[in-house]
Specification:
The protein has about 230 residues and is of the alpha+beta class. Helices cover about 25% and strands about 30% of the residues. It has a five-stranded antiparallel sheet, with helices on one face. It has a five-stranded mixed sheet with strand order 7-6-5-10-11, sandwiched between helices. Strands 8-9 form a two-stranded antiparallel ribbon. The protein starts with a strand and ends in a 24-residue tail after the last strand. One of its GO terms (biological process) is ERAD pathway.
């Protein structure tokens, strides 16, 4: 399939065209995506913008009605931000000494294989624990001060026990219905990458077979970024 990003305002027209070309349409609310089929074969897919809650009722899809948090964590660095009306209102980038220099491996991966050892490892472990405590403190601040409708996350599964097992509790559960996986790869969490992810989520990702290509008469926006888009 081909992939491209389109502005949110082009979604209603494109959904109407895809609906007319498909025999069956399914909406996955967890992934906020529409799937279009002919003879049980997927011919198209639209990952809707972050502020869309319904593909049918546009009154539910107002950007000003959606507040959200974006959280991106990699070993030793994390970026978290709170957004209103599509704009970043507050953010924080956290860093920690978590990577073993010679091996290039995080302290978490080292603990999973060999356990604690020397003083350097103890320092990295202490910084790792503080790293997640600081992240959860910032998340708690957002949850307590603002209405949060959605929580976009991007982190490896190996980090989950440290985030949700921190001394400072995560202000939401793993199965919180507001949580969704950010459907694009982010290699290095920074403030700039947080803004890039936000820009990506405010648009829609369209996937389509050749036969639907003529329906996409909208401006081509970042269509070369196929390798960064996960198959939602």
């Amino acid at each position: 399939m081909h992939k491209k990003l389109i502005p949110a305002q082009d979604c209603p027209r494109l959904i109407e065209k895809f609906n007319a070309s498909a025999e069956k349409v399914e909406f996955n609310s967890k992934k906020n995506s529409l799937y279009f089929y002919n003879s049980e074969v997927k011919i198209g897919q639209i990952r809707l913008p972050i502020h869309w809650k319904s593909p049918d009722d546009m009154s539910q899809n107002r950007l000003e009605d959606t507040n959200y948090i974006l959280l991106i964590i990699r070993s030793g660095i994390a970026a978290v931000g709170y957004f209103e009306n599509g704009d970043n209102m507050d953010h924080k980038v956290f860093r920690a000494y978590m990577v073993r220099k010679k091996q290039g491996k995080s302290q978490i991966k080292h603990l999973n294989t060999k356990g604690k050892s020397r003083a350097g490892s103890r320092v990295r472990l202490a910084e790792t624990l503080e790293f997640f405590e600081n992240i959860n403190s910032r998340l708690t601040k957002y949850i307590n001060e603002f209405r949060v409708d959605k929580i976009g996350i991007s982190y490896a599964t190996t980090l989950v026990p440290y985030l949700f097992g921190s001394k400072v509790s995560t202000p939401f559960q793993k199965d919180d219905p507001r949580i969704f996986k950010i459907p694009t790869h982010i290699s290095h969490p920074t403030y700039d990458s947080l803004l890039e992810v936000n820009d990506f989520l405010l648009k829609a990702t369209v996937q389509y077979v050749d036969s639907l290509a003529t329906l996409l008469d909208v401006p081509n926006d970042n269509s070369d970024k196929e390798e960064d888009l996960e198959d939602w």
